[in-house]
User: What shape does this take?
Amino acid sequence: MNTLAEVLNAMRSRQRWVITSHAGPDGDAVGSVLACVHILRAMGKQADGFLSDGVPFIYRGLPGAAEIRVGPVDGSRYDGVVILECDCLERAGLKGIEKLFSVNIDHHDTFLEYADVNYVVSSAAAAAELVYNLAQAAGVVITPDIATCLYTAVLTDTGSFCYSTTSAQTFAFAHDMVQAGADPVTVAQQVYFSNPASKMRLLGRALANLEHEGAISWMHVSEADMRSTGATEQDCEGLANWAIGIEGIEAAAFFREISGSRYRVSLRSKGRVDVARIAEIFGGGGHKCASGLTISGPFELARDRVLIALRHALELSEFKESAGA
Ligand SMILES: [Mn+2]
Assistant: This one.
């Protein structure tokens, strides 16, 4: 693992940077990439933001979002790549960065030191906190644009300051961002009150399929549901949170059918079950309270496999609690 000073040295000694994050970007991915672009430019560098899936609709109002490109990257035109929020290079889904000098900045529990420089702090509530540390170490002034991007990232990655990663430090961060010019009202209107109608129609389908047993709930949407509601992949972001919002439910799963009878699964936990560990079993990853994986269908089989893992983890946590561990 490298120090922040080593990250800074790597950035100072190279001029032209690609900044990227994972495919299917969330608020932390978009906000951190944009903030990092602004910060590197303030350091006198050339910095271009790339997201292989583009910027989701609700984040397009963020400063600099219109400049984000989808790739591929012409590697000969750059000296390095900053990869945010990815546990491996492939997670970015971006061609042309494979041979570039790489800096990995991440806050996932499931991480590998796959880059030339690795700065991973799993206790951080969002990758944006680490980007903020970088700005401070570099002596870059937090402009209203940077503050808006970083605030949005932390707001969304903590589930609006609800997940177990939320601490006094998170609010201190939010305080600093608002003082630096982020407007919480404008951000909330863009992120929470600007959903496409297709997302709400898809939510209706998902909720109609909601089931629960014991402390576990799950719901699913099929490709046919996606088509008939006119929903896109990005409309699925955050739907899993609805399944965990039931009294007595400790863990939840949201299944979305993707092509070839495969399912993208989002897992959520209220804290007793570590869903990052469960995602790992199936080759996915994420955080203790929010993670994701891809699994083969048919639906009944995929559902049963994930539910068995969730039940097992839940029983183990109950056993540990009753044993006073
Ligand atoms: Mn994140």
Q: What stands out?
A: The longest strand covers residues 251-258. The domain at 198-322 is CATH 3.10.310.30 (Diaminopimelate Epimerase; Chain A, domain 1).
